[in-house]
Structures are given as C-alpha cells and as structure tokens.
Amino acid sequence: MLLTLIAIYLVVSVAIGLYAARSVTTTREYITAGRSLSFPMVLAMVFATWFGAETVLGISATFLEEGFRGLISDPLGASLCLVLFGLVFARPLYRRNLLTLGDFFHDRYSRPIERSISFCIVVSYLGWVAAQVSALGLVFNVLSDGVISRDVGVLIGAGVVLAYTLVGGMASVAATTALQMVVIIVGLLIVAGLAGEQAGGLVPVVERAAAEGKFEWLPTLDLVDILGWIAALVTMALGSIPQQDVFQRVNASVNERTAVWATTLGGVSYFFFAAVPLYLAYAVSISHPELTAQLMAEDSQLVLPTIVANTMPTWLQVVFFGALLSVIMSTASGTLLAPSVTFAENIVKSTIPTLTDRQLLLITRLTVFGFTLLVVAYTLFSNASIHAMVESAYRITLAGAFVPLVAGLFWRRANTPGAALALGMGLTSWISLEVVGVELIAEPHLVGLLFSAVGMVAGSLMFGRTAHERKGALA
C-alpha cells in the first residue's frame, strides 16, 4: 500500500510538471518561466533550492555524529548564501535582464571568460545533483525493503525528475514545487511532532541534545580550528553565490522587489526549518537507541528513513516519504536544469552564435538529458556521503567564480585580465594543493579564494579596460 500511494504521488507530480510545460515554446520561457513568478512562488522555490536530500538525510545524519559543529557549511553557510544573494546580488543582477549567470561574465568581461567560468559552474553541479539522485536511490531501497536496490532506485528517481524537467524547464519546476512545498512542510512537522512525543516531548529532547553538546557550533581559539571553521562556512556561503540555480529563481521573479525579498526570506526560512529534520533525527535516536546505533554503524543516512519505515504507522510513513520525495525532487529538478541551461547558453551558443531560438531550446533539452546520464553514472560509482557530495560541489566556484562576479558587479576597474588571473590563480592553487596533499593551516579552497582575489586586483590594476568592459560596468 505504501509503495502504491508513493507511486501515485510521483505520477501526479510528473503530470503537473507536464501540464505546466504546455505553454513553453521559447528558450527564455524554458529558462525563466517568462519572468512571471509571484512572491510566494519564488519564496517556495528558493527555499526548495536548499531544502533537499542533504537537509533531511545528510545533515541530520551529520548532526547525530558531530552535532552542529559538523553543520557550519549547511544549514548555516547555505542560509547565509541566500540572504547575501537577496540583499546584495539580486537587485543588480535582476536589472540586467539576463538569461543565465554566464551571460553576465560575457557582458562584463569577454567570451573566453564567459565560457571558462560557465564550465566551472556546470562541473560544480555534478556533486549537488548526484546527492539528490543518490538520496532517491536510498529512499526507494528502504521503501521496498531492499527489493529495489540503491542503483535501480537511482535510475527510477532520475527518470521521474527528468520526465518533467526535460519538457517544461522552469515552468514545470515552479508548478511541481508548489505542490511539493505543501507536502514538505506539513509532512515533516507531523512526523517530527509524533517522534518528539515518543522521545518524551520537545523540551526533554532539546535539553538532552544540549547536555550532549550537540548545539556547540563556534570554533575554539586555536588558529587551525578557526580557519577550518571559516573554510566550511564560506564553501557554501560564498561558493554557492555564483550559481545558476539561485540566480535562475531570482531572475524568474515578476519584479525586482520580489527577487530581493523572496530570496532573503527564503534563506531565513531555510535556516529555521532545517532544524525540523535535526530534531526528528535526534528524537528517533532517543526513542530507538539500539536500532539507531546499528544503523549508525552501517550508514548514518539510513537512520531516519529506516526507523520511520519500521516503527511508525502506515499513514505516517506515507506522510514522511511523500515529504522526503518532495524535498528531493524539488531540489533535483532545479539543480538539473541550472547546469544544462548554462552549458547550452554560455558554451554552445557562444561557440555557435547563429543558432536559432528553436535550435537552442532543443540543445538545452538534450543537455538536460545528457547531464542526467552523467549524474547517474557519477552517483553509481561514487562512495561519498550525500552531505560530502554537496559540500564539495561548491569549492570550484568559490576558488574560480566568486571573485570575478563580485568584482564585476561592484568594482568598475575590474577587467578581463583581472578576471582571467582570478580564475587561473584561484583554480590552479586550489587544485594543486588538493592533488599534492600538502597540509596547511588553511583549507585548499580557502587558499584558492585568496589567490583569486590577488589575481583580480593585480590584473585589473596592471591593464586598462576596453570599451566593452566599460559598457558592461555601467550596465
């Protein structure tokens, strides 16, 4: 019965996505939904951008093992990213009326910079989308009591998300997110409430977590610990800013005010609601200590779904797994679309500028399909945890794309040589340290960010700006 109800829910989600796709005829509509999304819709989509598999399964498992000290990158860094994007970046980017974030790097710098940074952005999404697809495989495996293997579950989950994302783009993502957000919020609150009652109530659960040091989050006064803490924070807080999925939701807003405040409030909402799966995971660990210990030894990501599937009534299982699938699909669809449109618009189209809009729309859809295959392959052969996949995804954009974006928006002297040096020095230093494995007091991606800033300043001060760069700075 449980599997049947979940299957019906998946079919309904796909049907809604396909229905919303009926009016999508141009590339701009496919990517931005015609810039028609209202405040509630953008707020829901921004929230859903981050509230994915890593929030329910990844960071909840990390919380059980390490407490909040293991969650500096997410939810703290992820929430900070959305707040910063809304308050600082949303307004100037929305006014440019771009299709993709890669378009900004072309308008502000040059075609080579556009292609190079767009490639970095596309690569960064591999781990992010893989985390969602991996979680879908895990869920189907638990739901079927092992009949469906994780690998087969990955294929099923990827196929479901692909079905509506491929056809309708942002319009389908927006329509399905509206349904999924209701299921996420209502479902998780109900399950968390019952789990808390089984563990003795809200106050005892929170007091016990505090007594065990689960809420300690600040670094010690040790320099290495401080730098590690900062590196974890900025990986998501800054590395996630030059990303197409966040920009895409901002850019689809009906007006500038919606773009700014829906994004900001989406970040605040995410931070507070992310506490729900943390509370839920800790509550079930109290009420079912032996099963929790057994699952922690096997795979901590299995704690929540397995305990719900084995100990809670059927109706509550339907609520939980419906919410969990909504969480994953809402994030997976958006993060699958983002790198695909970036590749089609900023790498393919910039190389073949004579493409018609119809041809570009076809290439974008083919890219969505191709990127899905790549993600599935990566997921099947990776042994990384969901939280690790997400956390590592944004190191490349932190080291290579963040500084050119910030300087391009807020420093008029920024130019193409500066952007090229920022990109080259940031990525080279980061990758070199990762490959060589030299242990420094600072993480390699933090060193990459520093070198990127030095390259931007040096290149921009040594060379003058072209007419194209002056025009882009004033746009």
Detail the poorly predicted runs: none
Structural class: mainly alpha
Q: How helical, in percent, are the residues?
A: over 70%
In this structure, how is the largest beta sheet organized? none
Look at the structure and give the CATH class: Mainly Alpha
Mean pLDDT: 86
C-alpha termini separation: 57 Å
Counted by DSSP, the helix tally is 24
The beta-strand count equals 0
What's the alpha carbon Rg, rounded to whole Å? 22 Å
CATH superfamily heading? Sodium/glucose cotransporter
Q: What is the name of the CATH architecture? A: Up-down Bundle
If you consult CATH, what is the topology? Sodium/glucose cotransporter
**What is the percentage of strand-forming residues?**
under 5%
Dominant shape: globular
Order of secondary-structure elements: HHHHHHHHHHHHHHHHHHHHHHHH
- As for the number of domains, it is 1
Please outline the helices and strands:
Blueprint: H1 2-20, H2 27-32, H3 39-50, H4 53-66, H5 72-95, H6 101-108, H7 111-143, H8 150-168, H9 170-198, H10 202-211, H11 223-237, H12 244-251, H13 256-273, H14 275-287, H15 289-298, H16 303-311, H17 314-351, H18 357-381, H19 386-393, H20 395-400, H21 402-410, H22 416-436, H23 444-462, H24 467-474
Helix pairs in contact: 1-8, 1-9, 1-17, 3-9, 3-12, 3-13, 3-17, 4-14, 4-19, 5-11, 5-12, 5-13, 6-7, 7-8, 7-17, 7-18, 7-19, 8-9, 8-17, 8-18, 9-14, 9-17, 12-13, 14-15, 17-18, 21-23, 22-23
